[in-house]
Design goal:
The chain is of the alpha+beta class. The protein has one domain: Glutaredoxin (3-Layer(aba) Sandwich), CATH 3.40.30.10. The chain contains three helices and four strands, in the order βαβαββα. It has a four-stranded mixed β-sheet with strand order 2-1-3-4, covered by helices on one side. Helix 1 links the parallel strand 1 and strand 2. The protein is globular, with a radius of gyration of 11 Å. The two termini are 14 Å apart.
Length: 75
């Protein structure tokens, strides 16, 4: 099963919007994991000013995104 990672921040209102959006999607063949942007140095270096960000394998999806963009990412 593949992993979909939401890179998020503690007091990030956009991240809360992204979490709400993702909670409305039925992920059949993947697991959704939320990680704090400060949990890995690579996340901080690459995404600290871009969160929320979705990572799926080698693909990334930067905010703003909607359900349609998430589904395209999963294809």
């Amino acid at each position: 099963m593949k992993e979909l990672i939401l890179v998020s921040g503690k007091d990030c209102n956009l991240c809360k919007e992204a979490e709400l959006l993702l909670s409305q999607i039925n992920f059949k063949n993947c697991i959704l994991t939320t990680v704090d942007v400060y949990s890995k140095r690579t996340y901080v270096d690459k995404y600290w000013d871009k969160i929320p960000v979705i990572l799926y394998g080698e693909k990334e999806l930067l905010w703003p995104f909607d359900k349609e963009k998430v589904y395209k990412l999963l294809d």
